Amino acid sequence: MKRARWMLRIRPARPEEPTFVFFPHAGATPLSIGRLLTALPPQVGAIVADLPRGSGLDDGTPPDQAELAAEGLTQGLASLYEQETTAPRLVLVGNSYGALLAYETAWRLLEAALSPERLIVSGFRSPVLPPADPPLYRLPLPQLRAELSARYGGAQDADAAEWDDMPGIEALRADLKACDTYRHARHGRLPLPIDVLRLTRDTSTSLEDLRAWQSVTCVPLRMADCAMGHFPWAESPELIARTLIHLTYAP
What is the mean pLDDT of residues 187-215? Predict the structure, then answer.
């Protein structure tokens, strides 16, 4: 494994194969891709966002702005590849808050001449749409737990944090604040394809909100139905892995 600012490369891709860059949901750590990683074929690379979680084991306070987080993540990716002579095939994969981070990171990678090949997103409305629900990050802990459970169901990640752990709460609140306060400020559209995984058992995001991702890409949007809930990487890792491979290699 190789670590750079806010990014962890778990394994490199074999020559000419893609590298999946994973952006997990709010409050998550790199452990959230554990089950999915084992389901991916060994020739593809894997990198995961590793934002500060306020645990004392990382490099700072959790960022509470999506733009700030995306800037650090972009710097990390650029550092991982600064010694490489061949341009990587980067596929950005984001679920929930991670979809927003993948989108903002894609813009910054283009500006850094490290263009991703595509975005694959799920569990999050188009970035051009304002939040439709009241903000979560200021809620007292009991109400926050109840509201998250009602909206998204229980997180099934292998690293599902104990909610009595203060660093975990701090990180979760920072990520939720980044979601709740984000306002789209980009002009133009991304010159790369976006694939949307429609999680059919996830009621947190409407079909119309998912289709609105078309407004941020110049390429016709592709949508794939997946019969799972808001945390698909843990719920159905084998199906998600097959879907990622199909979308990446399909013409």
Answer: 96
